[in-house]
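pipeline/complex-builder :: batch 7 item 3
reading input block
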Amino acid sequence: MLEGYRGKAYEILSKLNIEVGDLIEVRKGDMVIKGILLPSYSKDEKIIVIKLDNGYNVGLSIENLSEIKLLAKASKKIITSEEISPKKGKSEVKIISTGGTIVSKVEYETGAVRPALTTEEIIQFLPEINEIANIEAEILFSILSENMKPEYWVKIAEAVKRAFDEGNNGVIIAHGTDTMSYTAAALAFSLQSLQGPVVLVGSQRSSDRPSSDSAINLLSSVILAKYAPFGEVVVNMHAESSDTYTLAHRGVKVRKMHSSRRDAFQSINDKPLAKIFWKERKIIINRDDYIKRKEETKLDSKFDERVFLLYYYPGLKSEILEFIISNFKIRGMIIAGTGLGHTSSEYVEIFRKATKDGIFVGMTTQCLFGRVNMNVYTTGRQLLDAGVTPLEDMLPEVALVKLMWVLAHEDDLEKIKQIMTTNLVGEINMRHSLDLFPRWSHE
Amino acid sequence: MLEGYRGKAYEILSKLNIEVGDLIEVRKGDMVIKGILLPSYSKDEKIIVIKLDNGYNVGLSIENLSEIKLLAKASKKIITSEEISPKKGKSEVKIISTGGTIVSKVEYETGAVRPALTTEEIIQFLPEINEIANIEAEILFSILSENMKPEYWVKIAEAVKRAFDEGNNGVIIAHGTDTMSYTAAALAFSLQSLQGPVVLVGSQRSSDRPSSDSAINLLSSVILAKYAPFGEVVVNMHAESSDTYTLAHRGVKVRKMHSSRRDAFQSINDKPLAKIFWKERKIIINRDDYIKRKEETKLDSKFDERVFLLYYYPGLKSEILEFIISNFKIRGMIIAGTGLGHTSSEYVEIFRKATKDGIFVGMTTQCLFGRVNMNVYTTGRQLLDAGVTPLEDMLPEVALVKLMWVLAHEDDLEKIKQIMTTNLVGEINMRHSLDLFPRWSHE
């Protein structure tokens, strides 16, 4: 595919069988430039964009190039439909249902909504599953995801461990979409060694509606759970307004970004791990830095809830924070600060006292996209000096869940700081390419 | 421009001199379809997308069309470079500086950063301004925007009123980017009748860096402040990673979405009001529903800070909220809830008691994009029953600033509810087109 290319550049590149993601070499005068072809973000249709080895992107006018060579096609791994079919016999994919829209079934006589994920009901709803994998379903509980709590995260993590111990190739968690990304993060930190994918799936429109995404999301999750080479927790949901494919997002890098769209879930500061084409029964692995399936599934699911997420805004009274710290004996706090990681400088002394008392204070940005950098401005440096820990490009919500997990395992503030700033399961991405920021329509 | 179109469709459309935004008519078999050409969002390069009168978008394969007709060019109002030049004499644009990166000047001897927006320094920095408008600068104060507070919003609003009373055509507020959108919302509610644009502008990279956006943002703000037909508060910042144009975003619909990119500011649930081409000295007005310049500038700037923004997450202890309500005598609260507007149902009774006690409780979504709808799920209905007010598609931060403003003007809860759900200055957008949601790259 040649995303974003038009006119002259499109013509030349497609003639050379070059696609986005391919390694190419171009010559401009005496200079030879080698790198990966990126999607075009230029209004000028003669410009091609290449990612160099040093991480920089360069835009070149195709008219000034004396030579363009395809060195290697993109090395995307593709799992095709021929490989996707079930062995006979025991369960290969376990579907654990926790509640939410995807598992609700409306009883037409009474109008009541009830969970509907027994093994038989799933097969009845989606007979195609039989052609993909042997499944087994378990109703763990049935709660709306807005009522999800850390104690339920532990129960889900334990059910995942059991499912792999039973010999399944992958596990699906049917979950309400409201707090799905929080649960995904909690599972990712709890299950850092996994024999296969843990796929969280939900639906934005219930299955009694014609535009429901239940079937597509569930079917592609079965494909993913059984066949993907991942040993990590992913969220698998609709990718775009049409029904072409779903996306497997890394569980610690995904966020619900729209209240109602089917493609509400998107990766933030990260690329999705895979595209799943449900109709073609095909998985395209987007990246090669995924965490591989491990020999053993290890469970370590403990959370300390004595934390607080401080969403900073002008006018927020510092007394409220002092109050929370002193009255609720919190052990840690995540700030969703402004810009590169700031609050009003009024807070500096409160944070200094807190960190002196052994309370962890970590900084993220309410911008969501981008990374905190507290060395640029005075306030940032003051906050650093007061002991606030910058948390790179972690989402505020993910940092909070990680903190709950870390606090349940460590008492020493220095060790807590060290683990919070160490990338455990992909929650910190140190390399941002330009195209991680989505594009708004300005027309 | 033919944004997103490639190949066949691009070829045909450009031959017919059709651009995005034009009114076209196509014929498919017996069917005649009339509508506005939208940017292409399709992977299939044969598809063209048309917005019908009823608001729906339809994608059509260009190969199946027997006729394509241009009915009318896009009716975008364009203010051209010929119209953009200064009259001689008194100040036409007032530049009020409040602090932040755009006004900082590094003293190379000492390394200290100091505000640099005297009239002379601005002209020295950007002599081109002289060709556009007569300006006058005022240093109101010099604070980092993370230290901004409601009491400063009042001072800025008063300075804006003075500037229009002095006869200026438009006012520019130089402001740090961290909390710029909060200030923009505060000014929008304080100055609901304006003789001209109030343009908030900042810079993401300071002017001593080669990639600084200071000059472009400031120059285009002068063009906008003097010539735009708006009587509203806008944020004018870099639009894309290249330097082509800036965007004027409605002050109550904009958010800083990236910690460091120059195009960090983007409209959420809304389209930008205008594009400003600084080099060509041209304004393209994007929409016709902007608020027009009024005869008189009216100032009503009061804020009640007894509010709280509750960012909901699983594990948040309801006791913390009860504590804040009882100890800080808050009069109102905005919830950044999950999905369509939810919290754990544990909170229902707390909210019921709060609203009975006359406290306003309003619901927004932490998804940011989309609208709350509390009629879909049980928890939403319970929250509604408990007196929680759904706030449509308002951003949590904007709802909070609006609430501070409303509480300073009203005591009666029913009246407060009514004003909070009434669109005052564009903060509620009842019509969402599909392309308001940005596009993520999935490659």
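note: DSSP finds ten helices and 22 strands in chain A.
queue -> next item
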